Amino acid sequence: MAFRQLWIILFVVGSLSAAPWDGRPGQPTSSPAHFLLHALVPEHNQVRDLTCLECRTAAGVIAAMMAEGATVEEIEDQVILDCVLLDLFPPDVCSGMVRLSGAEVLHVLNATKYDHETVCGWLLGGHCQHTQLDPWTLAVPGGKPAPSHPEPAQPTEGVVRILQLSDLHVDLLYDEGSAAHCEHPNCCRHAFGDPAPGELAAGHWGALANCDIPLHTLDDLLAHAALTNPDLVYVTGDLPPHDVWAQSHASNLLAINTTVQLIAKHFPDVPVLHALGNHASAPVNSFVVPTAYADGWSMTWLYDSLAAMWAPWLPEEALPDVRKGGYFSCSPKPGLRVISANMNYCNTLN
Ligand SMILES: *[C@@H]1O[C@H](CO)[C@@H](O)[C@H](O)[C@H]1NC(C)=O
Ligand SMILES: *[C@@H]1O[C@H](CO)[C@@H](O)[C@H](O)[C@H]1NC(C)=O
């Protein structure tokens, strides 16, 4: 699950400063704050998805603040203040999320040549889709091959059995007995409180609530999975937990590496091939494209570390691609080529 709401909140609450709904003919007469409170904070303090109009309006207001010379910090301060005043999230979530993602989101909004309709189309997709992208020509080495439609081969003794693990989201701070429902977007941690009498507590193996799993649950799951003797293991990303407002490069790398090491322990003789999920980065969903490295942005903290973690199962020649863009291709078995694409470049938030 992507924390779309948290990431976008930066845009949303920015619109409170000067939302243009006021006094517009045909628009509700309520203040922008009431409008957004109603729209964003229905029961249970859950923020629903942003609408297309809200996204465009909020992006426009933030752009106007930047045009007036507001600094990144001033805009972040304003957004955090609004987020807290509106009680959208607990204060640590408001400030953590905005401080983590503010500089990048504002840099992109400030630098993009695309209008807000196009930007919101990328963010929200679906009904909001409206793109003005330039035509993009990609040279395919050797030219476009003629289509062929081979019949699927019937299973033979040569069948390869693949175990796919995805979205493990282990929470190293999982705390058995803590509240399984809490004010924070992610619970079952000591820091987020004890359950009220009669309320659900975090169980030993996990909780059917807003919680990730403890490490010992994954350990047990992998022990069982190893009994099936797969020929290959695919790990298709999203290993860190959902505490996206409280993450750092170090905390994400620790969660990823702990999980990678645990999988290696249970499958010592099996090739394990990884792919990136949107939660690998901190802030979440943030994957700078290689063409922006020249502007001072960098992904080396993540991609160099992943190259080191994935190296035991990859040939040396695959590693430069991991370091460059978090993708690779390799052939773990004769006749089989695996392409691990960094799908975050095309991510419209899952
Ligand atoms: C936006 O871009 C302008 C021009 O490059 C720059 O002076 C300004 O500092 C930027 N503002 C933010 C908030 O990044
Ligand atoms: C991952 O953890 C192992 C074992 O603790 C350690 O040796 C290794 O340096 C770590 N790798 C990275 C990239 O952090």
TrEMBL record:
Keywords, comma-separated and alphabetical: Disulfide bond, Glycoprotein, Glycosidase, Hydrolase, Signal
Protein's UniProt name: Acid sphingomyelinase 1
MF terms (GO), sorted A to Z: acid sphingomyelin phosphodiesterase activity; hydrolase activity, acting on glycosyl bonds
Catalytic activity: a sphingomyelin + H2O = phosphocholine + an N-acylsphing-4-enine + H(+)
PANTHER family according to UniProt: SPHINGOMYELIN PHOSPHODIESTERASE (PTHR10340)
Boundaries of every Saposin B-type domain copy: 48-132
Gene Ontology cellular component list: extracellular space; lysosome; membrane
UniProt record, GO biological process: ceramide biosynthetic process; sphingomyelin catabolic process
Signal peptide limits: 1-18
One Pfam assignment: Metallophos
Keyword Ubl conjugation: no
